[in-house]
């Protein structure tokens, strides 16, 4: 191979840099603490629309689906698997109970380094910034 | 030989099936939520929503102001000074609202009057035709709606709209809104997206008439254009009405009684 | 072939460094735009497109113009163009890169731009524009690279490249046609609502693009001694002359239709551009008249054969490029949006920062062009296909 040494060294350096995030976080799980969320203190409802496991894993895709159903199909009511009906609204349904943005939403978002920009348009409940 | 060919065909057939069903699955993006979706119980329905503005019932431009204010404060529309403003409903004079009508000698009261302008919710909306992401789209009931989440801010719709009904958020609109915003139950928009009148789709969904209709005290009618017994059809049958730029074939859904 | 980039005179590196500095400085203006939104531009509710989209439009034409070399060479076997073709193809690549960047800097929410692919919308011309531009970029990159590589090894290009070249010829017409359809399909914008828009775009592209190419080749000739050949320059100049005549003719057709029909809507944009509105004369009027004078002067030099081949040629080409740029890069957008939808006037003038962002995009294009042409020149020199 032409310039074999330089090429191979280059490939190794590139592979190293490219996979750096994996190496840096190799023992990252040891220091990882699961964030402790503050559940709604004065809930208007007994339980969330679906199970906690489902919401934890799928709330973001559920919100996307709510948005498309409400805006495009005029389906503004969600009938949960237990038969209870909910008005589809991030601002006026979800945030009515989950009114502590910093201690609920942001706890996980910050830990997982995600930065959703819902609040550039939607209004946070009073007392949150 | 034969055997291997058969097994090859089998594998090939299976892979094609798997691939195509995978593609189909992507296209239909299965529902995530375990529940189901339905319309609101109180929602108002129509085959084709339309608005009739009885301009004869308004004595002066001042009388439109509370109506526009009702719309803008309900939808958290910011008051931005200058040419980069945002407006859903606004006033302009006869020449500008109906530039195709070239009769110079109309009634002076008509030529000097101000007319409320808003999105026409066209039957053939050019804005929907040109939008590259379906961020603006036409709903079954004739309302031309917008999904601000999807808008990339290319402003093709603004070039396409013959009525100047669309506004672009050149700046962060929150900078020009009070804190808290006028209506905390309704979102604002963000920088870099286009917005416009929605015919209050979110109010119709809970059984309320649009904000401007409610504030007009019966001088703005709203109803189903496809229903011959609706208030709008009766008003159009009994009175002379005009629409803005009818020769473009967009079929506006806003009628003016003059 | 990339190693050709690594050897050069000091002035080559100085030029690259200069471009990088320009890109960095203008990049700051773009960062400000990301922060403060498009409010830093001169655009408004009534004039919602401006300098960015007009530069995009102009550069699509420059990209398409490569076909004026490729078509004679491959459809008519005009071998004299063969030495210069690669420069046209590489210029097309740089132009398409600038087109894409101008679209991106114009977006209000650039991080969402892939929505165009995520939610493909066949009823939007923008969707097709995305497809044809990406396709044209790939075609030129593949064709340019493969043919240059073949030239370097002194072999015939592989057979499979031929269909791609033929496709690229048709494709070049399509990119500018689709760009014209962005405008020509919009109801209510009188200046744009004309069936001849695509034809006008193509004619203006086929004069201005080759003119830019020739001017750049003249600069390269002075700097490196590369000579595309006297005959090639002569033929290309003839093509430019015909295209410019057709371009001016098409524009006059618009003027005739607007004024003889007497339809006010069709007259207003032309009146605004060339005479102002109700006593108010816009800054763009002087530019439009400058374009008229330069277009006429360039034709006066280009039409007589002796002048066309004489020392005045570069001057004629500069004036031609300036005139076509004012027509398409300023007048087209401003005339389309003024008078606005209410038949009133909202003035548009690009702001300093808007111009800076545009210059930054041009600098990126110049960088891409410099690097690609450096490779091409290096290969031409190596194989001795450098001058007569």
Topology:
The complex is a heterotrimer of chains A (129), B (258) and C (388).
Chain A: H1 4-18, H2 20-24, H3 28-31, H4 52-73, E1 77-79, E2 85-87, H5 90-97, H6 105-111
Antiparallel strand pairs in A: 1-2
Chain B: H1 2-28, E1 36-38, E2 49-54, H2 65-74, E3 90-93, H3 94-97, H4 108-112, E4 114-117, H5 126-130, E5 136-138, E6 144-146, H6 156-160, E7 167-168, E8 194-195, H7 201-204, H8 211-215, E9 220-224, H9 231-238, E10 241-242, E11 254-257
Parallel strand pairs in B: 2-11
Antiparallel strand pairs in B: 2-9, 3-4, 5-6, 7-8, 10-11
Chain C: H1 10-36, H2 51-64, H3 67-75, H4 82-106, H5 115-118, H6 125-152, H7 161-184, H8 197-224, H9 230-261, H10 264-275, H11 283-302, H12 305-308, H13 313-337, H14 352-383
Mean pLDDT of chain B: 90
Instruction: State the strand order across the main sheet of chain A.
Output: 1-2
Strand content of chain A: under 5%
- What structural category characterises the helix and strand content of chain A? mainly alpha
Shape of chain A: elongated
Biggest sheet character of chain B: 4 strands, mixed
Structural class of chain B: alpha+beta
What does this structure look like?
The complex is a heterotrimer of chains A (129), B (258) and C (388). Chain A is mainly α. In chain A, 47% of the residues lie in helices and 5% in strands. Chain A has helices at residues 4-18, 20-24, 28-31, 52-73, 90-97, 105-111; strands at residues 77-79, 85-87. Chain A is elongated, with a radius of gyration of 22 Å. Chain B has 258 residues and is α+β, with helices and mostly antiparallel strands. Chain B has a single domain (49-257), classed as Alpha-Beta Plaits (2-Layer Sandwich), CATH 3.30.70. Helix content of chain B is 28%, strand content 15%. Chain B contains 9 helices and 11 strands. Chain B has helices at residues 2-28, 65-74, 94-97, 108-112, 126-130, 156-160, 201-204, 211-215, 231-238; strands spanning 36-38, 49-54, 90-93, 114-117, 136-138, 144-146, 167-168, 194-195, 220-224, 241-242, 254-257. Chain B has a 4-stranded mixed sheet with strand order 9-2-11-10. Chain B starts with a helix and ends with a strand. Residues 21-28 of chain B have low confidence and may be disordered. With 388 residues, chain C is an all-alpha fold. Chain C has a single domain (2-383), classed as Formate dehydrogenase/DMSO reductase domain (Formate dehydrogenase/DMSO reductase fold), CATH 1.20.1630. Chain C is globular and about 65 Å long. The two termini of chain C are 23 Å apart. The mean pLDDT of chain C is 94. Chains in contact: A-B, B-C.
């Amino acid at each position: 191979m032409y310039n074999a040494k330089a090429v191979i060294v280059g490939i190794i350096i590139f592979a190293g840099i490219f996979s750096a995030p994996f190496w840096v976080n190799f023992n990252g799980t040891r220091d990882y603490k699961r964030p402790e969320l503050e559940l709604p203190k004065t809930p208007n409802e007994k339980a969330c629309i679906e199970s906690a496991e489902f919401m934890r894993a799928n709330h973001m895709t559920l919100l996307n689906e709510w948005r498309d159903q409400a805006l495009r199909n005029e389906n503004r009511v969600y009938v949960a698997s237990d038969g209870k009906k909910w008005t589809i609204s991030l601002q006026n349904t979800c945030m009515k109970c989950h009114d502590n943005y910093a201690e609920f939403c942001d706890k996980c978002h910050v830990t997982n380094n995600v930065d959703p920009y819902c609040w550039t348009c939607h209004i946070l409940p009073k007392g949150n910034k | 030989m034969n055997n291997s060919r058969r097994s090859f065909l089998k594998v090939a057939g299976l892979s094609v099936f798997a691939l195509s069903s995978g593609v189909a699955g992507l296209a239909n993006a299965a529902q995530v939520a375990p529940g189901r979706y339905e319309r609101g119980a109180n929602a108002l329905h129509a085959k084709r929503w339309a608005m009739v503005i009885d301009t004869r019932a308004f004595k002066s431009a001042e009388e439109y102001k509370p109506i526009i204010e009702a719309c803008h404060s309900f939808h958290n529309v910011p008051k931005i000074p200058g040419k980069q403003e945002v407006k859903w409903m606004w006033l302009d004079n006869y020449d500008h609202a109906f530039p195709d009508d070239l009769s110079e000698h109309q009634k002076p009261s008509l030529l000097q009057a101000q007319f409320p302008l808003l999105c026409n919710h066209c039957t053939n909306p050019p804005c929907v035709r040109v939008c590259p992401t379906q961020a603006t789209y036409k709903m079954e009931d004739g309302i031309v709606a917008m999904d601000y989440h999807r808008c990339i801010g290319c402003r093709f719709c603004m070039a396409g709209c013959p009525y100047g009904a669309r506004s672009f958020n050149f700046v962060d609109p929150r900078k020009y809104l009070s804190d808290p915003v006028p209506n905390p139950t309704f979102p604002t928009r963000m920088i870099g997206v286009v917005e416009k009148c929605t015919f209050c789709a979110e109010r119709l969904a809970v059984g309320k008439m649009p904000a401007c209709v409610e504030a007009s005290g019966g001088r703005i009618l709203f109803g189903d254009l496809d229903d011959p017994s609706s208030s709008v059809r009766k008003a159009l049958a009994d009175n002379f009405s005009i629409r803005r730029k009818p020769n473009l074939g967009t079929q506006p859904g806003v009628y003016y009684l003059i | 072939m990339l190693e050709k980039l690594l050897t050069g005179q000091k002035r080559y590196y100085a030029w690259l460094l200069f471009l990088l500095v320009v890109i960095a400085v203008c990049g700051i203006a773009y960062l400000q735009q990301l922060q403060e939104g498009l409010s830093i531009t001169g655009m408004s509710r009534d004039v919602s497109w401006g300098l960015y989209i007009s530069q995009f439009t102009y550069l699509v034409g420059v990209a398409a113009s490569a076909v004026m070399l490729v078509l004679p060479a491959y459809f008519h076997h005009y071998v004299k163009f063969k030495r210069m073709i690669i420069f046209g193809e590489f210029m097309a690549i740089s132009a398409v890169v600038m087109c894409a960047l101008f679209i991106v800097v114009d977006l209000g929410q650039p991080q969402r731009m892939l929505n165009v692919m995520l939610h493909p919308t066949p009823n939007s011309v923008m969707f097709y524009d995305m497809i044809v531009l990406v396709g044209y970029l790939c075609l030129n990159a593949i064709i340019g690279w493969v043919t240059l590589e073949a030239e370097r090894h002194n072999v015939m290009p592989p057979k499979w490249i031929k269909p791609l070249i033929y496709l690229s010829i048709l494709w070049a017409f399509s990119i500018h046609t689709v760009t014209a359809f962005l405008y020509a399909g919009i109801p209510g914008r009188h200046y744009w609502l004309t069936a001849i828009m695509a034809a006008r775009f193509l004619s203006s592209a086929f004069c201005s693009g080759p003119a830019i190419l020739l001017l750049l080749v003249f600069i390269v000739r002075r700097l490196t001694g590369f000579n595309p050949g006297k005959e090639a320059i002569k033929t290309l100049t003839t093509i430019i002359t015909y295209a410019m005549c057709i371009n001016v003719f098409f524009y006059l057709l618009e003027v005739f239709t607007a004024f003889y029909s007497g339809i006010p809507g069709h007259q207003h944009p032309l009146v605004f551009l060339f005479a102002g509105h109700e006593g108010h004369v816009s800054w763009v009027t002087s530019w439009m008249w400058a374009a008229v004078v330069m277009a006429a002067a360039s034709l006066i030099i280009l039409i007589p054969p002796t002048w066309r081949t004489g020392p005045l040629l570069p001057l004629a080409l500069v004036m031609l490029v300036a005139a076509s740029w004012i027509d398409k890069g300023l007048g087209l957008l401003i005339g389309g949006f003024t008078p606005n939808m209410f038949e009133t006037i909202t003035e548009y003038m690009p702001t300093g920062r808007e111009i800076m962002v545009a210059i930054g995009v041009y600098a990126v294009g110049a960088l891409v062009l410099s690097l690609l042409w450096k490779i091409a020149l290096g290969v031409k020199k190596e194989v001795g296909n450098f001058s007569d």
